[in-house]
Write a structure and sequence with these properties.
The complex is a heterodimer of chains A (291) and B (344).
Chain A lengths: L1 H29 L6 H18 L4 H24 L7 H23 L17 E3 L2 E3 L1 H23 L1 H11 L1 H6 L4 H23 L9 H16 L4 H22 L3 H16 L14
Antiparallel strand pairs in A: 1-2
Chain B lengths: L1 H4 L1 H18 L2 H26 L7 H17 L5 H23 L4 H21 L1 H4 L5 E2 L12 H25 L1 H11 L1 H6 L4 H27 L1 E2 L6 H14 L4 H17 L4 H18 L4 H8 L11 H6 L21
Antiparallel strand pairs in B: 1-2
The chains are: A mainly alpha (291), B mainly alpha (344).
Amino acid sequence: MFTYLLIGGLTSGSLYALVALGLVLIYKSTTIVNLALGDTLMIGGFLAFTFHVLFGLPYIPSLLLAVACGFVLGALTERFVLRRIINASMLPMLLATLGLSFVLRGTGRVIWGGKGDFIPFPPLVNTAPIVYGDMLILPQQFIVLGSAITIMAVLGVFLRTTRAGKWMQATADNKKAARLVGIPVERVYLYTFGVGAALACAAAVLMAPITMLFPDVGLLLFFKAFAAAILGGLTSLPGAVIGGLAIGVIETMAAGYIDTSLQDVAAFIVIMFALIFIPNGIFGIRGIRRV
Amino acid sequence: MKAFLGNRAFLVYLFGALAILPVIANPYIIFIGNLILIYMILALGLNLLVGFAGQFSLANAAMFGIGAYGAGLLQVSAKLPFWVALPGGALIAMAIGTIIALPALKLSGLYLGLATLAFAQFTQWVFFNWRPVTHGAGGFAIPEVDFSLLSLRSDLGIYYVSWLLAIFLIALAWNAMQSRIGRAFIAIRDGEIAAQALGINLFKYKTMAFALSGFYAGVAGGLYAALLNYVAPDSFDLFQVVMQKTMVVVGGLGSIVGSILGALFLVIANEGLRQFKSAQEIAFGALLLLSVLFMPDGIVVQIRKFLPGWNERFHAKPPSALLGGGTPASPSPADGIVDKREPR
């Protein structure tokens, strides 16, 4: 029971970690929390569904296509919504991304069905569980976990070795100094939003075969990812990964040992308590309060 | 001129029209009129907290729900009459609003917004899952309120109760915002530390803002429950949050008349789109997005350009400052060279 729950928790946790990485990446360089990220994820998942199930493309190309579409969607978000208010205070950014999230959700509902329509996504591999000792493992979970780790590794390499990745890190570190050395900060914002959204879409495509797709899935995933990001301190990429895995394990354990309905509420409880008691998270930098 | 075109005159016309509406309209229009009155109370309560006191809370839909469940359950489970249950529900919402204020003393901006959003989702989860008390996803029915003493139909009775309460609560907000309390709220909004330096008790006034806002939402919730004779958790979801936020932003943050206008327009728009959930979501989301981008001061500021007497004493400058307005503050040389990770 314990190992089964642990593996299940780590699997869903790895998906939360991907979305949380997107959130943290965007937050670090722009100090915006993109409330629309969850709904970008939903759109990405449905696009993959369209490519894979409706157009009959194989899984890997559909994944890549959906991730590419996610990048474009994220970049468009930055270009047409947030660039106008990038210098404003927190409130308009939150309101604008909240508005955007509803536009995306409504659009998803128009295109891919009404509330409560759960669209199944065919499984990738044989769904029969592997029995190993007294453990019960679904092969699907291994694929998800492995792919999530691969994507995180690719992100790490991208941030460390490529020019765009280094720009993103420099901008996140110090916007003004980055501009001084000639980094096009606006374009970096564009990339950052694109990469963040692409990560979310990758999570959506990996998630789709295990759970189901529905237009309201975005909000749920956003909260879990946000809880993960908060646990990790909101500015730490490794923190986001560890936070994501922790949230996944916490909610699965709570659902398995206490009550199944706790699965969806665990994240909210973690957010409330984490914000009140450890607002800087586990790996966060203690904020300086400025007058 | 000013006396006939100004915002107070407008309120008199509006409530005059709403008073005679039941005489000339059919029950459906009366129902819409009643919804408008309820949302006026809601939007006003939210504006006191967000627009005046500057506390970015997303828990208003939860307070609305707590008021509705509180009033409804006091009638159904505790068998109390409506006249006790309505203030009872409002007081429960006010008490919970006060409890939310405690973390708000530590959090601000982004963190407060997301903590309250998490609280809102948590509340909805409680409505769904605490079945022995809240009756779960199906909700529960409430008996019609009896107005036979006044020989009024039940829906007309609720309508006029809402009308009276809306007027009372608007007057209360209007006067409170002109008083020491309103000035303290605005000082906190414009600069917490500066307000503290002026001797404003942050603990007292932030708690007061949350309690007041919770009370307004609770009253609105009790009226909503009595209007529908039915309470279900679906009514208090995130769409409700967005709808109320849109009303306040479209009307004008920090403007009392703005909230009233926002509620008036958006309830009508929402009714027009009721058939299509996705169209509602797109319309309200886009409206919120576009008004933040292009009209951050709200509709009140647009009206002020054409009509005299629409200045509100404390709405003269603030909302665009609150919203950032697109003009970045002049950067100081040291700004940004230091590693600054704090959310703005």
